[in-house]
Design a protein that fits this description.
single chain; alpha/beta; Pyruvate Kinase, Chain: A, domain 1; elongated
């Protein structure tokens, strides 16, 4: 049985750990609120962007000529973009993304793809991909907690170049979508080619959509407007995925740190009870020794 001194040291160690986990929980909560605000600010812009794209597409006669919309007859080579965190201590946040990415890899190969490559966003995911010796085209790291539009644009330019140059025939995004503080949903989304229902989505219109279509005029032309909006849509989609992932990461870390703090509290209670029992056993042993000594003197 460990001594009282050993148990006291362990209790002090667990208390110090609980202080750290509580601090990390508070930091994650503050970052989560900021991430939620950024997502809420982006959603109206993304919704209006899709509305303008839908209106321009309906007036365009050359939808199939846009490179970002062109479906390949055969998907021979595909890219899977895994958006993970740069840090751990977030429960199964990073593991779920990689598991979904490997599942997407198997599905693509089952559909006839000869080769699947990875683009890692986040240190944790990229490190695991390297450890498993997966084919990595490129990695982007260092901004998972607070992503900016510039990072999203850099990733988008690279992926668009991969697709338009014919190096890959399809690009999939794998990320954690933020639903609530307690719920994050792993999402696998096709980024390129842009699916046609995205461009032709009528849900983005206003209630009086027919009237707004008639009053919308595009200069110099609907085709040129749509050609400029499609790359912006790719940038915005990646930016939204980064923001969703950041918020989900903070929420997952907050939950993980809260659970760790609760577990530490329970462990301190158990250790305190164990220490009290050890103290009682020591006192009882001393009393027995005194009684035995007194009996020996009689």
């Amino acid at each position: 049985m460990p001594s009282q001194r050993d148990i006291k040291r362990r209790i002090e160690s667990v208390r110090n750990t609980r202080k750290i986990t509580r601090a990390m929980e508070l930091v994650a909560s503050a970052k989560l609120r900021r991430a939620q605000d950024r997502i809420e600010s982006l959603r109206p812009y993304a919704r209006n962007l899709r509305g303008v794209m839908a209106q321009a597409s309906r007036q365009s006669e050359a939808n199939r000529a846009f490179p970002l919309l062109q479906e390949r007859d055969e998907v021979r080579r595909a890219a899977v973009v895994t958006i993970t965190g740069d840090r751990g201590l977030a429960g199964a946040f990073n593991v779920n993304i990689l598991r979904a990415g490997f599942g997407a890899d198997r599905d693509l190969r089952g559909d006839g793809a000869d080769d699947v490559v990875y683009v890692g966003v986040g240190k944790k995911g990229s490190g695991t991909l390297r450890f498993r010796r997966m084919p990595i085209e490129r990695t982007f790291e260092g901004f998972s907690s607070d992503p900016g539009y510039g990072e999203a644009q850099l990733i988008a330019e690279y992926l668009v170049e991969l697709f338009t140059s014919g190096q890959v025939d399809r690009v999939l995004l794998v990320y954690n979508a933020f639903k609530s503080v307690m719920q994050q949903q792993v999402t696998v989304e096709q980024l390129l080619p842009i699916e046609r229902q995205v461009v032709l989505d009528d849900d983005a219109d206003d209630d009086d959509g027919e009237q707004s279509r008639a009053l919308t005029l595009f200069e110099p032309s609907a085709e040129e407007v749509l050609a400029r909006l499609l790359p912006v849509y790719v940038n915005t989609t990646i930016y939204r995925a980064l923001l969703e992932s950041a918020a989900a990461e903070h929420a997952a870390r907050r939950s993980a740190m809260r659970n760790a703090s609760d577990n530490a509290g329970g462990l301190i209670t158990d250790l305190t009870l164990k220490m009290n029992r050890a103290r009682q056993a020591a006192i009882t042993q001393e009393i027995l020794e005194v009684v035995a000594g007194a009996d020996a003197l009689q």
